[in-house]
TrEMBL record:
GO cellular component: plasma membrane
Organism whose genome encodes this protein: Methyloglobulus morosus KoM1
Any one GO molecular function term: glycosyltransferase activity
Annotated TM spans: none
Annotated ranges, domain Glycosyltransferase 2-like: 4-122
UniProt protein name: Glycosyl transferase family 2
Major location (coarse): membrane
Length: 229
């Protein structure tokens, strides 16, 4: 199986080299596609020698990931955030998990950081995902390109595009929920406050399900706020 790892970026100059260096051993049967949404720092310059394709698009994770998928040559697409690291045997884990009844999936997640609540948060993220069949971008969604195209790719909304995609996919096939763990940054949780961020994330998710404009939710998410002021 051939793979394409698609990484959406926006001003990730502090983290992108570490992210891409970790992927270099996989390049024998995996292309790395970085899709930049208009960075004003040195993200693109730093990434250029470490990727197979560098694409520039408009801002927005859904827009960026769809553009990466459109140019991908791999049979299997892996959507990776720039602050997230795959487990050592990620590709073989995917190959073993995927079959006719499970054509997409995600990994368990660990949140990097020192706060003891981060382990609790990650545990409930993984448990909730198994219970609901909904995956988040932090858990590194992987999917057959053919299936991804057939469901219309990521909806081009400002936030919750991963949840919207999962809702469509689980009607077709259940996700493969891998116990192997990706490690993603817990910086946001620590910067804004762990308990405040828990409440904020649940608030935004509830309001999304109730139909609130994703653009409004994106602005609140970026500012760590519950309401516009």
């Amino acid at each position: 199986m051939n793979y394409s790892i698609i990484i959406p970026t926006l001003n990730e100059g502090r983290t992108i080299v570490n992210c891409l260096n970790a992927l270099q051993p996989l390049r024998s049967n995996c292309e790395i596609i970085l899709v930049d949404g208009g960075s004003t720092d040195d993200t693109q310059k730093l990434a250029q020698p470490l990727v197979d394709k560098l694409i520039s698009t408009g801002k927005g994770r859904a827009i960026q990931m769809n553009a990466g998928a459109e140019s991908a040559k791999g049979e299997m697409l892996i959507f990776l955030h720039a602050d997230t690291f795959l487990p050592q045997n990620a590709l073989s884990d995917i190959a073993q998990a995927i079959h006719s009844q499970q054509q997409w999936g995600r990994f368990d997640v660990v949140l990097g950081g020192s706060h003891p609540m981060l382990k609790v948060i990650a545990f409930f993220m993984n448990w909730r995902s198994r219970l609901t069949g909904i995956a988040t971008g932090d858990q590194v969604i992987f999917i057959y390109k053919q299936l991804f195209d057939s469901v219309g790719r990521y909806p081009t909304i400002a936030l919750m595009e991963d949840i919207a995609l999962s809702k469509k996919l689980k009607k077709i096939a259940p996700p493969a929920c891998l116990k192997a763990k990706v490690t993603t940054s817990g910086r946001r949780w620590e910067d804004y406050g762990v308990f405040k961020t828990i409440l904020l994330m649940w608030s935004l998710r509830l309001r999304y399900f109730l139909g609130e404009d994703p653009q409004t939710l994106t602005e609140l998410y970026g500012r760590g706020k519950f309401w516009k002021t």
